[in-house]
Amino acid sequence: MSHDQASYLELLARGAAAEAYDRPALLARADGAGPETLAALEHAKRVALRVRAELEERRRREAELSALFETAHDLAGLRDLDAVLRAIVQRARSLLGTEVAYLCLNDPAAGDTYMRVTEGSVSARFQQLRLGMGEGLGGLVAQTARPYVTDSYFDDPRFQHTRSIDSGVRDEGLVAILGVPLMLGSQVIGVLFAADRHARVFEREQTALLGSFAAHAAVAIDTANLLGETRSALAELEKANEIIKDHSAVIERASDVHDRLTELVLRGGGVHDVASALSEVLDGTVEFAGPDSASVTALELTGTEGHAKRHGDVWGAAVSAGGELLGALVLRGHPGLDPVDQRTLERAAMVTSLLLLARRSAGEAEQRVRGELLDDLLDAPDRDPRLLRERAVRLHADLDAPHVVLAARIDGPAPDTTARETADRRRLWSAASHLAATGHGLAATRHGGTVLLLPLAREDTAADLARRTARQLGSALREPVTIGASTAVEAPAERPGAIAEAYAEARRCLDALRLLGRTGDGAAAQDLGFLGLLLADTRDIEGFVHRTIGEVVDYDLRRGTDLVRTLGAYFASGMSPARTKDDLHVHVNTVAQRLERIGRLLGPDWQSPARSLEIQLALRLHTMSVAVVR
């Protein structure tokens, strides 16, 4: 190998430009080389250029393969679809040596195609282009599913030109454009483009290379879609799992509520036990409210048929039976009540209504038994005392203790219908029966009202018991209830006949209270002065005298004074101090002093017409009793 031929190897080694390969032959010709030498150099030049071209092709293929490998690597670690598509477009532009590269995707929802990624673009209008299906070079590529190239875009009649597309291409200054389809199976989902701002011929190898990048882009999009679907499926699975967990927890909670309520019913629990158990389950505060409570009124539960309702932060479920509102279960502290918890509250309200109905039935049965015992005491005085005691013990009543018979009647506005009057009587009997049961007594309906037999505490009087009972029943019914009381019956079991006599006395006292206009009050005969003396069968004259002028009589006995005689002379003289002093033969000042003392003993109203009449009757009875004793 000659020195001149070896120079071609040096040119290949340093990757010299093609023009440099003419230099060895020119130098040899200048040095006067012969034809054989020049021919040999020309042959060596051609061989060297072929080798150079093959090396260039190999380097180009290596660069393409490297780019494709990097793209495949990007796809293997796909996290961000936009980043992968940008890398594909950048590599396509770099390897094809174009000024611009861009990728468009179809939008099935809008029915057009839009720019997804651009590289090398400077026009905002071009970057925001949306192409109708079948328009522009991209439309031709999409329709035929084949690559297309145009050396001069505006002079090419093979595709449909539109004003918007042409304006965008003109703004970008593009002339030569190569487009290849993005395929998923047989479906075109977009187009990948490479373009220059001057006329250019794209080689077949460049079209194939851009097609390879388009295939990678399609895989990236398909992979991203699959990942998206997988993520959606996983999210749906997680959501379904959460729903299953929640449903399982709901079932478990509902089962717990059912078990608790069942246990409460079986062991005879009450309404407040249900509310307490429900408070734990619902994580709030549950209470039972009566039908007239403010909470029930605010919730407007009448007619809701047990459905839970919300008012502000408060939930309530009606406790009802047969259209009658018995009350409500009211939940506080848990405003965000889900449907399952609402049904739990409603189920508990139904259980509460059953408990109340059972208690009412048991109470009514007990009330009937109490009424039957009192009826026997009133109507069958010849009953065996031992049997009466046994029946009373079962009702927690002691008929060997002192009792008082009370006659009760509602004294509100006159009822406008017979049905209303009957309802009033039932309400009075129900309230009186409850009072009798809690007070270890008896109650029954009689003569349009109610009769009670209540034990008399040692520190009480019959009048005290009558007044207290009138207040309690009036408060329960929200209407005035008038009570007439008898004198105490020491042992009803020993003297059953005394109960009927006492009831007659209580009724007379009740009638007297109504005649006196003392509706809504309670009193015994002893409270009614001489009228009570006339009403009472006992005719307790000594007691009447003692209650009326006992203080004056006792004062005379202790001090040796003459206030009783002065009091009689005062009334006999027409309540004139001057005539009184003449009858007594004392000074008028003495009369005044005695009357002042009497006033302190009897009270400031002793000279009122009603009191003075009673005092005069008591003086007359006292004088008669003293005369009898003498």
Task: Explain what you see.
There is one protein chain. The protein is α+β, with helices and mostly antiparallel strands and 630 residues long. The strands form 3 sheets. It has a 6-stranded antiparallel β-sheet with strand order 3-2-1-6-5-4, sandwiched between helices. Strands 12-13-11-14-15 form a 5-stranded mixed β-sheet. The protein has a 4-stranded antiparallel β-sheet with strand order 7-10-9-8. The chain has helices spanning 3-14, 23-30, 35-76, 81-96, 124-127, 136-144, 163-172, 204-266, 271-282, 294-299, 339-379, 385-394, 418-438, 462-477, 497-515, 529-535, 541-559, 563-572, 577-584, 588-602, 609-629; strands spanning 100-107, 112-119, 130-132, 148-150, 176-184, 187-196, 285-289, 308-311, 314-321, 324-332, 403-410, 442-446, 449-455, 481-485, 522-524. The protein is rod-shaped. Helix 3 packs antiparallel against helix 4 (81-96).
Report Rg.
58 Å
Spatial order of strands in the largest sheet: 3-2-1-6-5-4
Oligomerization state of this entry? single chain
Strand content: 15-25%
Structure annotation, total helices:
21
Cα shape: rod-shaped
Total strands: the figure is 15
Q: Distance between the terminal alpha carbons, to the nearest Å?
A: 184 Å
pLDDT averaged over residues = 78
- Report on the biggest sheet: 6 strands, antiparallel
Give the low-pLDDT segments: none
Q: Helicity range of the residues? A: 55-70%
Structural class by sheet pairing and helices: alpha+beta
